């Protein structure tokens, strides 16, 4: 006569030694370990591929003319002028206009500048990094466009405008320092 416990084991899906039909090849812990190892290998391979793509992309961008700090020295900013206006929300907008000259031998398709507004102690009160926008037209209003829309040829001078929706209350009101950080060229 079978006991109640023996009967449950017999009707269960396990074999008499406690291993189910699906577990006969490898114990449960080993299968989890193999799955984790496989996933780790895939993650490492994806990381390696992404690293290669970033390195190749960076090298290619320097060859075909992406942003270059070296060419930034070929761009000269002059004739700076500042103005302000009120916006519809009751705030103040500050404009910094000027002229950019391409003194180099390449066509410029983008310019990145850093603008530093200082306080009365001559410390930086606000530091902005932004793309330079060229003035496309002046009438009936001043309209700007990115440099890429109308690239700056070698020897060419163009008017630009930088727009600041907010300037630090600590700003001393003097002209900010404007430095060309990089230039995209072709």
Mean pLDDT: 82
CATH architecture title of the largest domain: Sandwich
N- to C-terminal separation?
92 Å
How many domains make up the 3D coordinates?
2
Question: What composes the largest sheet?
Answer: 5 strands, antiparallel
Structural class: alpha+beta
Number of strands: 9
Classify the helix fraction into a percent range.
Answer: 10-25%
Strand content: 35-45%
Quaternary assembly? single chain
Order of helices and strands: HHEEEEEEEEE
What CATH first level of the largest domain would be assigned?
Mainly Beta
Per CATH, what is the topology of the largest domain? Immunoglobulin-like
- Sequence stretches where pLDDT stays below 50 over 5 or more residues: 1-16, 58-66
Radius of gyration: 33 Å
Principal-axes shape call = elongated
Model description:
By secondary structure, the protein is an alpha+beta fold. It folds into two domains: 4-63; 68-185, Immunoglobulin-like (Sandwich). Helix content is 24%, strand content 38%. The protein has helices at 4-11, 28-63; strands at residues 67-68, 75-86, 92-102, 108-118, 124-131, 133-137, 143-146, 157-164, 177-185. The strands form two sheets. A five-stranded antiparallel β-sheet has the order 2-3-8-6-7, with no helix packed on it. A four-stranded antiparallel β-sheet has the order 1-9-4-5, with no helix packed on it. A hairpin with a 5-residue loop joins strand 2 and strand 3 (92-102). It is elongated and about 80 Å long. The model is unreliable at 1-16 and 58-66 (pLDDT under 50).
